Amino acid sequence: VCLVGVGPGDPGLLTLRAYQLMQTADVVLYDRLVSNEILNLARAEARMVYVGKRAGYHTRTQEEIHELLAAFADAGATILRLKGGDPLVFGRGGEEFEFLREHNPNVRVEVVPGITAAAGVGSELGIPLTHRGVATSVRLLTGHLREGAGDPVDFAVTSADVETTLVVYMGLGTLPKLSEKLIASGFPADMPAVAIERGTTVDERRVFSSIEHLPEAAAACELVSPTLLIVGRTVTLSPHWPYAADESS
């Protein structure tokens, strides 16, 4: 079983190892964020199984995905589990790896890293996640946590400081609350921010603003999921930053 990250969306950012494995797979289980352009790279004889999820609708539960992986593995198939970004960064790849090892220790599991959205989208827009004298650290957070795990916005607020670049995956739904709570906690209202829908793909859309005004700007542009949020001073280093140094609204 190969747990493979396909990167942030652009097929050109697929790793060579991922491409090699796509030529040998018997079965491909793929997520919603894996594009047709990438799926078309798999060998024609491979069985394609869609197991994608989106907010409020799952074609398969995570437990059902585990059982599919186990059944195909027990049958001796070479399985490619394709995930957007990196399988171990908010991709639940760790859970699948753990399940397979516990289910059958004799099943060989390989994890192939992919370019995670923070790195891929940041690079495409010319936004360094860290930058000497501007941002000394970067924190990757999710806008969705499992039920009972707490409010993801609270995690973001406690992680925020002016010298840290904050990247929120799947953050569109929590953006208004995130903006409000960050500012209420003392975070600068004029902190530069950007929301990027379908980053690195031909369908990419993005909106730059301050963290205070980003919710209304994203709503005005009618951004939809998947949308990545990047908040921090390094956002202004992007050649696409549309504002003068003294305005970000």
Automatic annotation (TrEMBL):
This is uroporphyrinogen-III C-methyltransferase. Gene3D superfamilies: Cobalt-precorrin-4 Transmethylase, Domain 1, Methyltransferase, Cobalt-precorrin-4 Transmethylase, Domain 2. Its EC number is 2.1.1.107. Keywords: Methyltransferase, Porphyrin biosynthesis, S-adenosyl-L-methionine, Transferase. GO terms for cellular component: chloroplast. One of its GO terms (molecular function) is uroporphyrin-III C-methyltransferase activity. Residues 2-214 form the Tetrapyrrole methylase domain. The keyword Transferase applies. The keyword Thylakoid does not apply. GO terms for biological process: methylation; positive regulation of chlorophyll biosynthetic process; regulation of nitrate assimilation; regulation of sulfate assimilation; response to light stimulus; siroheme biosynthetic process.
